[in-house]
Amino acid sequence: MTIQGKSVYSGVAIGRLAIYQKSENQVKREKITDTAKEIKRFEDARETAKQQLAGLYEKALKEVGEVNAAIFEVHQMMLEDLDYVESITNMIEGQQVNAEYAVASTGDTFSEMFAAMDDDYMRERSADVRDVSNRVVSILQGNGGNGLDADEPVILLADDLAPSETVQLDKSKVLSFVTRHGSTNSHTAILARTMNIPALIGVDFPEFNRDLIFSRCESNLRKIFNAIELQDTTAINNDEEFIYLREKINQQIEDMKSNNVTEKFDNIEFNRHAIMAYNKNNGKATIKISTTLSYYYKTNRTDKKSYEDIKKQTRYTSEFVYVYDERRFTKNQVTFSVLCPNCGAPLRGLESKYCEYCGNHVERINLKIWKMSSYKEDY
């Protein structure tokens, strides 16, 4: 497997791959009555965060020097910023929401503000605000830290690494790290160079495991057949795997109900999968897969023949999509159904941070995973 990216610090590393496990901060909007108590929770978490950052500064000071350790002083200063702090406390007091929600919401707002700036240095501060806010939310929720679980030195794979995560890495266990995001001007990149860790960033080439893709193709087709047979889309609508196909399958089943059409699939057997095409354009990569299979098929449709006594031999063509450049992807107006995981209401799109119906915090949908985008029977 060959991957390409931007070299942060040149070197050669040979070892086992390991995935960096980030702790998940699931934030829900909750109505509170004691706003003074909730603000006190936030203030206590803020103080704890400052103490943690002071400890990281001392650690970085010894390992990477004063200049590079300064980022953790900047993070402490962010926690003292009046605009940031007042935005959180005002939201708690004015909207009567929990501290976690107020911190996450403010962090998103400030992060997006920095990300939209023209200056490269200021854009990099977007990640810093996100890092600081995630730290406070983790403290409020009592979550443990992120971690690397390895018994031997490894090449570390991560979606991205915050400066605090980079400094806390056990250097004796890290041969190199590879991330999908980041820039050569980021603090993480600077720290990697200072710590002499070979690193590759901006690696967005969508590698895939052929057997895994085939297995997912088979699993998805079974789920689709089951939804059509039961005329029930609950499982499809609740599965992020089908974000590109929800509307098509829901419409198909609604049409079946309206016309009193039934279809039944029995004893499904998959015979062979083959990759027919691979393309990369408009911010996405696509794989087209041909699948031959057989099943007993019963229907009351007038345009299709039933196969109740002998197995129907058929073939389906499926397509999987991997998004490596979301800006180009959304610019080309690729659409799909995004639903709130809490109440099921439709969201405005990929960039939605909160549901406008129930106010729930929405985790960003990860498009950098192969997902089925289409399927059709060939004969």
Description:
The protein is of the alpha/beta class and 379 residues long. It has three domains: 6-22 and 146-201, Glucose Oxidase, domain 1 (3-Layer(bba) Sandwich); 35-141, Enzyme I, Chain A, domain 2; 210-377. 41% of the residues lie in helices and 21% in strands. A five-stranded mixed beta sheet has the order 1-5-4-3-2. Strands 6-7-8-9 form a four-stranded antiparallel beta sheet. Helix 1 runs antiparallel to helix 2 (82-95) and helix 2 (82-95) packs across helix 3 (99-115). The relative contact order is 0.12.
Task: List strands and helices in order, with pairings.
Layout: E1 6-9, E2 16-19, H1 35-78, H2 82-95, H3 99-115, H4 120-141, E3 154-158, H5 163-168, E4 174-179, H6 187-194, E5 199-201, H7 210-230, H8 234-237, H9 246-258, E6 263-281, E7 284-299, E8 307-323, H10 326-331, E9 371-377
Parallel strand pairs: 2-3, 3-4, 4-5
Antiparallel strand pairs: 1-5, 6-7, 7-8, 8-9
Helix pairs in contact: 1-2, 1-4, 2-3, 3-4
**Sheet having the most strands:** 5 strands, mixed
Number of helices: 10
Low-confidence stretches: 331-337
Please provide the ordered H/E string of secondary-structure elements: EEHHHHEHEHEHHHEEEHE
Report the β-strand fraction as a percent range.
15-25%
Whole-number mean pLDDT: 81
Oligomer: single chain
Number of domains: 3
List keywords for this structure.
379 residues; alpha/beta; Glucose Oxidase, domain 1; Enzyme I, Chain A, domain 2; 3 domains; 10 helices; globular
